[in-house]
Amino acid sequence: MSVAELVLLGVVVLVGAFLQASIGFGLGMLAGPVMALVEPSLVPVGVMLLATGVTAATVVLEREHLDLRGAGWALLGRVPGVIAGAALVAVLPTQALSLFLAGVVLLGVFITIRGFAPRPTTGAVITAGAASGLMGTATSIGGPPMALVWQGKVGPALRGTMGAFFLVGSVMSLVALAVAGQVTAEIVTNTALLLPAAALGLLLARPLARRLDVRRIRYVVLTVSVLGSVVLIVQQFV
After folding, report:
1. What are the structural domain ranges in the chain?
2. What pLDDT digit, counting tens, does each position of 71-111 carry?
3. Cα–Cα distance between 141 and 51 in angstroms, integer?
4. Are 228 and 33 in contact (CB under 8 A)?
């Protein structure tokens, strides 16, 4: 990466980590398309490494609300999804993976805007966990299915359940990707250069999150995510 590319990705990761810690999503949807444009080798492993670090730090800060039991069914569903996602990464060419990433982002934005709200039955949670495992492992964006099925939870219950699911689930995905030969020393080294930006975003979220207009920020993230995805799609055909 050039210095300019590193600075650009650093800013995106900082903002994404800030949003992830503040409103529960943002890092994957924001950083995924940008990284695919600037440094495709960092998708999905690099984004997932950063997201795992931010999630782990958030779980430590919110440890009194951690709810592994509540996330159990979703984690059960995530196992086959992770395997399928790792297989996709291993066999799909870069162009196809980029298009899949963009499609996942656009689908997530569409569903979020439409406000679709399935009942959180055991079957729905397991299905969402499988979808999250596949999407998260293949593209680093596994939040939308879980956000849909758990949107009835609020406050500590939501943070605890989501935190437990994404921490364990991200580790599962990274292990599967490593077994598939997708985690290389170069990717880890380049991702490490972005860790300070992620840490700064996380630190800023603690004092500033309460001052955010969550609804407005949410739509800004969705808009930027759509623009990044559209640019990514266009890039694949020019």
Report:
1. 3-235
2. 999 999 999 999 999 999 999 898 898 889 889 888 888 88
3. 10
4. yes
- CA 122 vs CA 13, 108, 116, 160: distances in Å: 34, 22, 18, 18
In the structure encoding, which two tokens stand for residue 60, read together?
């430590």
Taking only the tens place, the pLDDT of each residue in 132-170 is 999 889 988 888 888 778 877 766 677 678 888 988 999
Both tokens of residue 218?
């949410």
CA distances from 209 to 18, 19, 56, 219, 236 (A): 8, 9, 18, 16, 36
**DSSP result, 25-38:** --HHHHHHHHHHHH
CB burial of residue 155 (10 Å; 0-12, 13-18, 19+): exposed
Specify the DSSP element, H or E, that contains 236: none
pLDDT digits (tens, 9 = 90+) for 1-11: 899 999 999 99
Angle at 189 between CA 183 and CA 194, to 5 degrees: 110
Q: Is the dihedral of CA 144, 190, 37, 139 positive or negative?
A: negative
